[in-house]
């Protein structure tokens, strides 16, 4: 399953549409005014599906992930000098590759590929392709990619 993650061009808050291969919106992400990033995810019918919320007042950026109101885990940036690295306490997943350049692989605890993430260049807004192995993992992959994108945005501003 391939999904296209595309940031909306004119948006005061972080807003994204996520499309399937047929060009249909699968998820919509709406940023909320809050301390830190707060990204709410809605499915194609407009129903609330999950949230990525930045934990404020932490030494290193941390993002908590929720499906509905249920806490699922977190993503925290680790202290490194050159390449960003993340401590992922979510689904037993880990990241391999270069998250800084947006070409990385999400793996399960057995080293099996859950998703491949790649940034498309030559677009006006951030655009990523997510190649997801199992369709039931789509929401979870979207949440993880949003958390990493939000951390990168925080670091650049």
Automatic annotation (TrEMBL):
Organism domain of life: Bacteria
Gene3D superfamilies, alphabetized: LURP1-related
Residue ranges crossing the lipid bilayer per the database entry: none
The protein, known as: Tubby C 2
Family indicated by similarity: Belongs to the LOR family.
Species in which this protein is naturally found: Blautia hansenii
